[in-house]
Amino acid sequence: MAETAEGWARVLTAFENWIDYEASEFGPWTGYFNLENLRSLTSKERLGWMHKMQEELIPGRVDVCQSAGVALEDFLPYMPGEEARNTVRSMIDLTQIIQDSMLGMSDQFARMMDEYKTEGLDEAIHYLRGIIDSEEEIRHQMSLYSQGFAKLAALGLEIPEEML
To answer: Which DSSP helix (H) or strand (E) runs through 39?
Structure first.
């Protein structure tokens, strides 16, 4: 039982780190997903924002997502039955789907930046719409983890009270 508690601790820490990154690092920069806010920036600031998203913030986001997946992989051997293992596997698969979506968003930023440099904001703005759609899909996918945790709880694998 101690190993299961240790596994929970790793999983919860990984998800807490991810939530913290989303709130403190990535989230503040999403204000520029709003066209009005983006237009309020200078050209140099817009390029800096695009560069920061593509080169720093999205890779950091992928890293914390990947860490959650690794914690789930480490937790897998402590699952008592096939249904619990399948639930954790689906959560691991979800992690990969989310990472792929994040990397796709990074690619959209790269294309947006290239077009912005040559054509200007009005011509590159269609990428912003794609980025917003990607972010909505990522957020939806992230919300699906709660179903996995609820299923584990229904199988008797609740988070130990001392960790709540």
So the answer is: helix 35-39
11 exposure class (CB count in 10 Å sphere: 0-12, 13-18, 19+): buried
pTM: 0.93
SS3 of the chain: helix, strand, coil, percent, to 5: 90, 0, 10
Torsion angle of alpha carbons 34, 39, 43, 45, nearest 10°? -50
Buried b (16+ CB within 10 A) or exposed e, 57-90: bbeebbebbbbbbebbeebeebbeeeebeebbeb
Angle at 74 between CA 73 and CA 80, to 5 degrees: 90
Contact 37/2 with Cβ under 8 angstroms? Answer: no
Q: How far is CA 32 from CA 28, 41, 58, 94, in A?
A: 9, 9, 15, 27
User: How confident is the prediction along the chain (164 residues), in pLDDT tens digits per residue?
Assistant: 577 888 999 999 999 999 999 999 999 999 999 999 999 999 999 999 999 999 999 999 999 999 999 999 999 999 999 999 999 999 999 999 999 999 999 999 999 999 999 999 999 999 999 999 999 999 999 999 999 999 999 998 888 777 76
